[in-house]
From TrEMBL:
<dbReference type="GO" id="GO:0003700">
    <property type="term" value="F:DNA-binding transcription factor activity"/>
</dbReference>
<feature type="DNA-binding region" description="H-T-H motif">
    <location>
        <begin position="38"/>
        <end position="57"/>
    </location>
</feature>
<feature type="domain" description="HTH tetR-type">
    <location>
        <begin position="15"/>
        <end position="75"/>
    </location>
</feature>
<dbReference type="GO" id="GO:0000976">
    <property type="term" value="F:transcription cis-regulatory region binding"/>
</dbReference>
<keyword id="KW-0805">Transcription regulation</keyword>
<keyword id="KW-0804">Transcription</keyword>
<dbReference type="Pfam" id="PF00440">
    <property type="entry name" value="TetR_N"/>
</dbReference>
<keyword id="KW-0238">DNA-binding</keyword>
<dbReference type="InterPro" id="IPR050109">
    <property type="entry name" value="HTH-type_TetR-like_transc_reg"/>
</dbReference>
<dbReference type="InterPro" id="IPR009057">
    <property type="entry name" value="Homeodomain-like_sf"/>
</dbReference>
<dbReference type="InterPro" id="IPR001647">
    <property type="entry name" value="HTH_TetR"/>
</dbReference>
<protein>
    <submittedName>
        <fullName>AcrR family transcriptional regulator</fullName>
    </submittedName>
</protein>
Length: 210
């Protein structure tokens, strides 16, 4: 790797070029999938030479992984945090409703990491893509955060009796939002409030039955 990309100016200029490449790759991957994304297409879409792409990214696999990372970091920064303030005395259902009312409304924006990540999960290849590993690791981290949030609302008796319940509910929340995201790609007629109430009802019943 050279000290700077060909023709690069300031650090800000380099970051602008890097983001142009990431956005071009995201558009192409969303349209053509992983296999259909090529460095040649990225250079044409971004208007930057291949030498610039390879200065920032060692290969296509690394580029797509960085597309997911860049998109995820932008998306997660705008999300409500799955952390319970010890001073927050709201019941579980009310707290869950407040978080979901913000998070599910971001789904129609179709973050690249969700669209491309789901594509990668459905594709199979002999060598697992770095981007697929990143997407799975990110989902695991999110699931752990949600599970910790649920656990913070459980009394010690429920946690001892059903230690797996918090993670089961976290995975259910993620699976449900996955389904809502995919459904929105097919038909944009959806009511987030109805969806939220269904999820809250499922969680309340599971906790009561625990």
């Amino acid at each position: 790797m050279s000290a700077a990309p060909p023709g690069a100016g300031s650090a800000d200029d380099r970051e602008i070029s890097r983001v142009r490449i990431l956005r071009a790759a995201a558009e192409i991957a969303s349209e053509c999938g992983y296999e259909g994304t090529t460095i040649s297409k990225v250079t044409k879409r971004s208007g930057l030479p291949a030498s610039s792409v390879y200065w920032f990214f060692r290969d296509k696999d690394h580029l797509i992984a960085e597309v997911l990372r860049h998109s995820f970091e932008q998306w997660i920064a705008a999300q409500p945090r799955w952390e319970r303030d010890p001073r927050d005395e709201r019941p579980l259902a009310e707290g869950l409703r407040a978080i979901l009312s913000r998070s599910v409304r971001t789904l129609p924006g179709a973050p690249d990491f969700l669209r491309i990540g789901h594509m990668l999960l459905l594709e199979s290849r002999e060598v697992e893509a770095e981007a697929r590993r990143y997407f799975l690791a990110t989902r695991d981290a999110v699931a752990n955060n949600i599970a910790a949030w649920f656990s913070a609302h459980f009394d010690t008796e429920l946690q001892a009796r059903r230690p797996e319940l918090a993670m089961d509910l976290a995975r259910m929340v993620i699976a449900s939002t996955d389904g809502l995201f995919l459904a929105h790609q097919i038909d944009d007629e959806w009511d987030p409030d109805d969806f939220i109430e269904i999820i809250v009802a499922i969680v309340e019943q599971a906790v009561a039955a625990g």
